[in-house]
Task: inverse folding
C-alpha cells in the first residue's frame, strides 16, 4: 500500500463552491481506476473545523505502484496541474490499514508527526498498527490507515468518519466524494 496526498492552498476569499462543483463533475473519473484502493476528495475551509486555511487536498491509498504511476504521469494528475499548477506530492509507505464499522465518510482526519531519532523502524510499524486498530474500532470510524516516509521519517495517520466531529486528533477535512475501486484489496 502507498499513501499519497497533495494540498492546494487557496486564497481566503476563494469560492469553495468551485471545488465542490469540480468534485461533483469529475470525482467519478477515478471510481474504476486500476490499482487505486481509494481516493478521498478532501477539502478544508477556513473557519470550519478550526481550519485557518482553505485547501483542496485529496488523499490516496494505492494498491499498486503501477496504478499510482499511471495517475501521476498520465491524464489524472495533469488536470490538477493544468488548473492549479503542479503541487508537491507527499508519499508514505503504507504500514497499516483497518476497516471500521461506519458506512458513509463525511469527514477525514490526518495527523502527521516526525518519527523521533533513535526509534526502531519495527517499533514505528508496530505502533502504527496499534493506532490504526484503535481508531478503526471507534464508533463512527469508516477506516483508518497509517504510513511513513522513510526519507524524512514522517508518519501519517489517516482516518475517515461518519460524524462531523470525529474522535481523532489531527487536521479535519470535509469529504466531498470517495472513489474506492479496490478498497477491498487494501492490505490489512
Result:
Amino acid at each position: 500500500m502507498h499513501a499519497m496526498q497533495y494540498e492546494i492552498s487557496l486564497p481566503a476569499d476563494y469560492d469553495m463552491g468551485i471545488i465542490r462543483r469540480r468534485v461533483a463533475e469529475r470525482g467519478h473519473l477515478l471510481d474504476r481506476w486500476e490499482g487505486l484502493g481509494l481516493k478521498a476528495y478532501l477539502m478544508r475551509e477556513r473557519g470550519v473545523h478550526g481550519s485557518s486555511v482553505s485547501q483542496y487536498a485529496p488523499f490516496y491509498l494505492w494498491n499498486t505502484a503501477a496504478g499510482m504511476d499511471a495517475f501521476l504521469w498520465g491524464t489524472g494528475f495533469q488536470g490538477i496541474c493544468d488548473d492549479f499548477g503542479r503541487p508537491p506530492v507527499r508519499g508514505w509507505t503504507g504500514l497499516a490499514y483497518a476497516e471500521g464499522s461506519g458506512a458513509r465518510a463525511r469527514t477525514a482526519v490526518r495527523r502527521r508527526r516526525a518519527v523521533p531519532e533513535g526509534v526502531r523502524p519495527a517499533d514505528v510499524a508496530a505502533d502504527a498498527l496499534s493506532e490504526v486498530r484503535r481508531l478503526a474500532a471507534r464508533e463512527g470510524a469508516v477506516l483508518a490507515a497509517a504510513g511513513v516516509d522513510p526519507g524524512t521519517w514522517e508518519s501519517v495517520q489517516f482516518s475517515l468518519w461518519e460524524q462531523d466531529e470525529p474522535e481523532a486528533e489531527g487536521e479535519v477535512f470535509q469529504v466531498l466524494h470517495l472513489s474506492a475501486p479496490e478498497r477491498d484489496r487494501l492490505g490489512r
In short: Helices lie at 17-26, 65-72, 75-84, 121-136.
